[in-house]
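Researcher:
Attend to token order:
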Amino acid sequence: MRILALAIATAFVSTAASAAPIELVTNGGFETTTNGLGQFSNNTMVPGWTSSGYNFVFDGANPSAAVQGQFGGLALWGPGNGSDNGLTGSPAGGNFVGADGAFEVGAITQTLSGLTAGHRYDVSFYWGGAQQDGFNGITTEQWIVSLGGISQSTAVLTNANHGFTGWQKTTFTFTAQTANDVLSFLAVGTPNGEPPFSVLDGVSAKAVAPVAEPGALAIRRRQPRPRRRRASPQVSRRRPEPLQPPEMSTATAVPIFVSAQIG
């Protein structure tokens, strides 16, 4: 029985491992573009994504280098243009997105397919706050993330003048509304005129792995066998022999004569 339980548990674990959730986001690192770097839907396109705002694709290997947009070149403050703020590409590597959260604000979106309504999905991503080169002042940056019309917001980061907040990773869990829900990232920043840029990279969406029921992998312990009772030694049940009365003597009685003197 114990061997059978072990086999069942091993098969369960193997099946769970082979059914690891698949990646649902296309081009989540923004590596593939149609015309290199620059403004989304203006100078370049990013397959899998659409953009309706002042959003740009930057090079993680040279993050403070200027890219082209509708108003000409645009860069973020960083080591390459006079600010030793530590601006780097994200831990995901490669390209990343920078979105103005206070000017011509518009979301970056992608429709996720193959969802199951009512099931939960984890959306994870790297993000941070930066500032457009050529402007001064303290800024704040944030992302509002939505799936199927349900929204969640990151913390609000306060960024120093000419600064960079560093990258951090956040995961939100959503419940799918339909089989095809829209994933959306909307940058929010302040103040207007000192361009706050929310940066984004490494977007991923996967189904939440089901939780095994308690005891599903428990191995049944072998139950001890009941001990067999040893037979008690046989005790003689014979009745004791009745005591015989002592034998009477068979000696012959001898008469005794007593003489008496008669005067």
User: Anything to note?
Assistant: The first helix runs from residue 2 to 18. The radius of gyration is 45 Å. Residues 23-207 form a domain with the Jelly Rolls fold (CATH 2.60.120.260). The mean pLDDT is 84.
